[in-house]
Amino acid sequence: MTDTTDRAVETAPKMTADAERIAAELIGQDLGTDPFVAAVRATRMPMIITNPRLHDNPVVFTNNAFCRLSGYEREEILGRNCRFLQGPKTDRETVARIREAVRRVESIEIDIQNHRKDGETFWNRLLMAPVYDTDGVLAYFFASQVDVTLERERLKGLETSNASLMAELTDRLRVQQEQERELAFTLKAARFGTWSLEIETQRLTASETCKEIFGRPVDQPFTYADRLAAIHPDDRALSVDESRRCVEEGTDYDVVYRIHRHDDGELRWIGSRGQPFFDANGKALRIAGVSTDITDQRRSDITRAALVELGDMFRDTECPDDISFAAASIIGRTIDLSRVGYGGIDAATDEVTVTRDWTAPGVSQLSGIYDLRDFGSYVDDMKRGEEICIEDVRLDPRTARTTEALEAVNARAIINMPIMENGRLVAMLYLASGRARRWRADEIMFAREVAERTRIATERRRTEQALAALAASLEQQVVARTGELQHAEDALRQSQKMEAVGQLTGGVAHDFNNLLTVIRSATDLLKRPDLTPERQARYIDAISDTADRAAKLTGQLLAFARRQALRPEVIDVGQSLTVISDMLGTLTGSRIRIGIDLPETACFTNVDPSQLDTALVNMAVNARDAMDGAGRIDIAVRPAAFIPAVRSHPAVEGQYVAISMTDTGSGIAPDKLERIFEPFFTTKGVGQGTGLGLSQVFGFAKQSDGDIVVESEVGRGTTFTLYLPRAEEEEIVPAGEAVEALADGHGTCVLVVEDNSEVGTFTTQSLAELGYVTVWAANAQEALAELAKDASRIDIVFSDVVMPGMNGIELGKEIRARYPDLPVVLTSGYSNVLAQDGTHGFELLHKPYSVEQLSRILRKVAG
To answer: By C-alpha distance, which of 292, 285, 282, 200 is closest to 254?
Structure first.
């Protein structure tokens, strides 16, 4: 043997599991009983095996005969390239021919003069052949050795008689035959079906293993026509084209196709690899190769791909019926069926309702109501939850009488899988094949798994749609009752819990009913004729105070929903804390000490000052209640470079101001932390809190492009950190001078745009009482029409934001474009447009407003 290193060999693919097993046995790591390995070890013929997958193609096995031949011990041979046998008398041209055979991965028989360990030369007749694994990948090179020194010497000196020469030749033939038998055994053990196709005559020679793969009797001829007939019609042309290409290009034959086995008709996947052989003139003689049954691997790949497709379909499909149909299509295409579908079953009448089912090309779809007993007597079995699996309806006693009906719908072989709910048969998955077939266990398991996944997916989608419908209904109810609480939908999406919606609606109704009770009682008392002025004033004050409380409640709700129209300005956070520190001390009481830690450098933020004050007050009140009125609150302001990860959201980098408030209270249990920002959620006793304080803080932070983080330890206290976007000091806009409130309008003409008749009537009457001249338009179109008549008579436009058709923002923009000098004042208690886009430079009066506030802002814009 000689040097077998080659770049083509060095880049050989990774060993398969089968090749690794054989290699392990060859080197003695595996004490298996592979007959081929045992034979190689026991033979007296010198043999070695090299592994082209390892660096330098080293020897990985040698038998005792080779050790005796070379004079080396086994430990001196293993792991080395065969070039150690070469010496000064080794012919370089012979070495080159062996290397070329290795490079081309071809067999070679050649004589080479090698050197034993003691330096003695001997003539070695080398027979080397490549061996492939079950996947057709090169596994190793097998080389047998024959010491032909004497033969060479006899031939050289003509000293050998004819009898001796014939004996040598006979021995050589015997060795060759043994080697061929060993190679044949190896191929058979590895389930390699060898074949050879004569190009000119199309004569096919196939091994017994090859015939067995195609389901043919081993003792009968297997022709090329038989092979083509066995190949699936859709793959037949592929095989023929590959043979033609192999011959024309002179490259390896490599193709994968499906066959129907001759004996049982089962569909199998075959991988065939080979190479063409040519004569001296370049004429193609034959293609020789091996075929391997790769059905298990292909089925596994197809099933895995089908399940991936199923998962993608679940993600992208909304309609449950479309999910069921798509799943049926995946089953049908994967298992090669004629019909697959789902049907709902009325257990009382034994009727199945089919909306539509998947069918193979050329097969009509089913749609309608059918009596199950018209297709067999297996209904009672299905009611017990049993699967119906019939390979040929003509032969099964349950379907023998209904064969005609079944075959009319292309159902020669069927599987019916019952779908049970609470022990009752409610639906079924049916699979049908237009021909009799043996249902494999893996096919049934695949269909069962797809059916189960589809059931879960459709139930989940129906539940999601039902929840979505319920959420939409609840949102409509909340909007109808409150008029301005559209945050219900955002709260529902954020918490993903129906409990939050129930708490929201119940809490709003409870608090507003309390407020309405006060207002209703006060108005009833005001109607009494004997009411003194003092009591009358007290009842009026009660109504006014209650209205303020209602406005504060809606403000908290809108803050949580992030729907209030903020009026941001750049403020010094430390200065704002200093201003409200006294109020915080009053709110928390004398038994609570408040410490404020401000940075040396002022921190500025661009937010609504009043909402920031409200958020700080709510945080302080929450801390006070957690300490039962006694303890310490530490408030610190620091710049921050990021918002830490919180509530499944990743960390957010940026410039922020962090306002932390730490109390020494009882702390918050871990299972409550995720709910503390939900509306109306509170751990306090009945009547001790509304559950809206932290909701306002959360909503204000989110709408201000910030966030709030809470850290708490039971028994140690809690820290709330409010993160707000940081602003530069030069962005501060100085506040304008306060506009003096004037009660008299002095004949100023106001165009009131209000679609609510009660509000419109009250507003125009109130303005008339204050000396304003009013024109009332019920919508934006009427307002534009009034201006078109004579815009010069109008001094101010006072418009609601939320109106049908064109809203107040759009109306203001239109007026600004047509009448640039005409001031516009907007009013709203809630507007998604304002919350998202701001006021667009228009003055805004929040509802509910007093008559004095209305007069003040009108006088401000009138100049």
So the answer is: 292
CA gap 776, 667 in Å, rounded:
56
Main-chain dihedrals φ then ψ at residue 274, nearest 5 degrees: -165, -175
CA separation for the pair 665, 659 (Å, rounded): 19
C-alpha atoms less than 13 angstroms from C-alpha of 704 in its C-beta half-sphere: 33
Distance CA 322, CA 325 (A): 5
Distance CA 31, CA 38 (A): 10
Residue 290 CA to chain centroid, in angstroms?
Answer: 42
Task: Please count the CA atoms within 13 angstroms of the CA of 200 that sit on its side-chain side.
Answer: 6
Beta carbons of 718 and 662 less than 8 angstroms apart:
yes
The answer to whether the CB of 361 falls within 8 A of the CB of 370 is no
**pLDDT score, position 254:** 92
Q: Are 29 and 20 in contact (CB under 8 A)?
A: no
Helices and strands of the chain, counted as H and E runs: 28, 29
Q: What pLDDT, on the 0 to 100 scale, is given for residue 555?
A: 58
* Contact call for residues 21 and 27 (beta carbons, < 8 A): no
Count of residues making up the chain: 863
Other CB atoms within a 10 A radius of the CB of residue 724 amount to: 25
Tokens of 297: 């691997």
Contact of 728 with 777, CB cutoff 8 Å:
no
CA atoms in the 13 A half-sphere facing the CB of 629 = 3
Which of 551, 549, 526, 552 has its CA nearest to residue 537? 526
CB neighbours of residue 854 within 10 Å: 20
- Residue 439 CB contacts under 8 Å (≥ 6 apart), including other chains: 389, 391, 413, 415
The per-residue pLDDT for 161 is 59
Whole-angstrom distance, CA of residue 684 vs CA of residue 666 = 12
pLDDT 10s digits, 590-610: 788 888 889 888 889 988 887
CB neighbour list of residue 149: distance below 8 Å, 6 or more residues apart: 121, 122, 123
User: How is 28-66 classified by DSSP, letter by letter?
Assistant: TS-----HHHHHHHH-SS-EEEE-TTSTT--EEEE-HHH
- Look up the pTM and report it: 0.36
Q: Could you tell me the two tokens for 651? A: 């960390």
Give me the residues of the chain with pLDDT under 50, please: 6-13, 29-32, 160, 489, 491-504, 559-563, 686-687, 731-742
